[in-house]
Design a protein that fits this description.
globular, three-stranded antiparallel beta sheet, single chain, alpha+beta
Length: about 100
């Protein structure tokens, strides 16, 4: 399933990703406010890597994730499909 051009994902002082100069990475997302890298993917040896600096595992306005942190924040949808797509890509599974 294709991902949208933009997404709301919880950023709570997460990481900024800085690839080594010349590294072959695919930039998947950046932070709107800072234009820094937020998500990227790359091949590593015989595997695949997906790195994310945000917190897509937290469902801000739902108890689906089993935690209450962020429940008062506004959520613009779930990020779990994104994470499923990333896991499927890392595992090399065709859906």
């Amino acid at each position: 399933m294709p991902e949208p051009d933009t997404a709301w994902i919880l950023y709570y002082w997460g990481s900024v990703l800085v690839p080594d100069t010349g590294a072959e990475v695919t930039v998947l997302a950046g932070y709107n406010a800072t234009d820094q890298l937020a998500m990227l993917a790359f091949n590593y040896d015989s595997g695949r890597v997906f790195l994310v600096g945000t917190y897509p595992e937290i469902e801000e306005d739902s108890d689906r994730d089993g935690v209450t942190f962020g429940d008062k924040l506004e959520d613009q949808g779930s990020d779990w499909e994104l994470m499923k797509s990333a896991a499927v890509w890392c595992l090399g599974i065709l859906e």
